[in-house]
Amino acid sequence: MLRPIIVALDFPTFDEAKVCVDNLKSEIDIFKVGLELFLNTKGEIVEYIHSKGREVFLDLKFHDIPNTTEQAAKFAISQNVFLYNIHASGGMEMMKRVAKVSRESEKSRVIGVTILTSLENSDMHEGFLTDATVGDVATKLAKNACDSGLHGVVCSPHEAASIKAVCGKEFLTVCPGIRLESGDLQDQKRVATPRWAVKNGVDFMVIGRPITKAENPLEVIKNIYKEIGYGK
Ligand code: C5P
Q1: Single pTM value for the model
Q2: Cα–Cα–Cα angle for 108, 111, 114, nearest 5°?
Q3: Domain spans in the chain, listed from the N-terminal domain onward
Q4: For 197-226, what is each residue's pLDDT tens digit?
């Protein structure tokens, strides 16, 4: 079983990311690679993480017509990533085709991004011409992702329990916005502590700065495992 913390490798250079993987690999099974690092390392960071015996969450958020997204999904699967994501707003045909190739692979799980947390209700009116709230749209998109066969969604820890209630407990909830009890919020707003998150249905916590910017990142990770009772 993979441990429930995913460390976000939000670094611009290959060297910084490598140092982080090398330092944390004893306590971390999955590292998240986003667009910045993937592009700056021409994708080579994925192979590096695998060469250290660790798994990759490829956070490239594919969003295109069904055929193009399916081809991108096949690329992610060919890289043997454990997790990757697509935009749930790309529609159910797109999600179904991606879910099918992912489920055939048996290794790569695909999760849906519902509504980016940087968007608010006013953006729904402006960009999508709807009076529905961000929460309503996100919940509907999570249900569509589930009905299309995706393995889970990226969501706020505050939505994990209700998504599990609608989509079932096997449906993965992968959540950023995690902050330590005593920690700095940085630019995150709707946050949760690791203990609260795990108690409320979060399967994997995506954590960046509270770990990567800490003086002793390994100690922070071990304290989180202790806080959530992991390994007992
Ligand atoms: O440093 P921090 O713990 O805030 O990092 C969280 C990670 O999760 C970052 O890589 C950020 O881009 C990502 N993320 C997020 N909120 C989302 C989706 C992804 O914070 N809704």
Answers
A1: 0.95
A2: 165
A3: 5-228
A4: 999 999 999 999 999 999 999 999 999 999
Among 109, 70, 106, 62, which residue's Cα sits nearest to residue 88? 62
Rounded Cα distance between 44 and 82, Å, is 16
Q: What is the mean pLDDT of the chain?
A: 94
The CB of 158 under 6 Å from ligand 1? The reply is no
What does the pLDDT average to over 82-91? 97
Neighbouring CB atoms inside 10 A of 100's CB total 14
Which residue among 7, 9, 10, 185 has the greatest number of ligand 1 atoms within 8 angstroms of its CB, and so is best to mutate?
Answer: 10
> DSSP H helical segments within 115-208, as ranges?
121-128, 134-148, 157-167, 194-199
Instruction: Compute the distance between CA of residue 98 and CA of residue 70 in angstroms, rounded to an integer.
Output: 5
Say which DSSP state 106 is in.
Answer: S
Give the homologous superfamily in CATH for domain 5-228: Aldolase class I (3.20.20.70)
Q: Which atom of ligand 1 is nearest to the CA of 10?
A: 10
Residues 133-186: tens digit of each pLDDT: 988 899 999 999 999 999 999 999 999 999 999 999 999 999 999 999 877 777
For residue 159 and ligand 1, the question of a CB distance below 6 A is answered with no
Torsion sign, CA atoms 203, 18, 55, 104: positive
Cα of 119 from ligand 1 centre, angstroms? 14
Tokens of residue 178, six digits: 């995690």
